[in-house]
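call fold(seq) -> tokens
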Amino acid sequence: MAHAATPTRRHHGYLGWALPLVLGISYGAYAAFIARDGGPGSVGQAVLAVVSGAVMAVLAFLLGRYQKSLPRELRALSYGALSAAAIGFLVSLTGESSVLRSTGLGVSVGAGVTVVAFYLFYTHE
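ret:
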């Protein structure tokens, strides 16, 4: 019975860090692609790619790491908020849209992700 009292470490597989890493690289590359707008690449676009990709990767990693400790409603809302912020930021990089359009598209995508995530969490628990 002594082994039951010792704390166990939960080891995450490679998918726990590989998926956020690939998501961050893809997001950063797409953000730089949108900001480039057909012109030549610049250092500013490279910095944008690295920073936005790193932020996305860290947020996705943290959400994946702590999602089991959240109730399903808050977990679904977290996924929706992350996707809303990500889409809103990418839309704002186009330069052709207003703040209201970026916000509206981000909120609508985030609401859709929240509903789908809640449905998946509710039916699989």
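DSSP finds five helices and no strands in the chain.
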